[in-house]
Each structure stands twice: as structure tokens, then as C-alpha cells.
Amino acid sequence: MNILILNGSPRAHGNTAAMVEAFSEGARDKGHTV
Predict the structure, then answer these.
(1) DSSP characters for 1-34?
(2) Residue 21: which domain range?
(3) Each residue of 17-26: pLDDT tens digit?
(4) What is the distance between the alpha carbons of residues 3 and 34, in angstroms, rounded to a whole number?
(5) CA nearest to 21, candidates 7, 2, 1
(6) How remote is the C-alpha of 17 from its chain's centroid?
């Protein structure tokens, strides 16, 4: 499955960025293309 993640937060290293990184890492571990 292809997954597109859009992060609209203005803070490059904020909580949203950490959540996006954790989600994308988990999706990649399951074999998805992010």
C-alpha cells in the first residue's frame, strides 16, 4: 500500500513531526511504501 503523509505544522521538530515519524516508521516496518 502506498501512504502519503502531509505534515502542515510550522514546527519542523515539534510533536506533530515526532508523531509523523513514528507513524511512517511503523508503516515501513509493515512493508508499506511511505
Answers:
(1) -B-------S-TTSHHHHHHHHHHHHHHHTT-B-
(2) 1-34
(3) 999 999 999 9
(4) 5
(5) 7
(6) 7
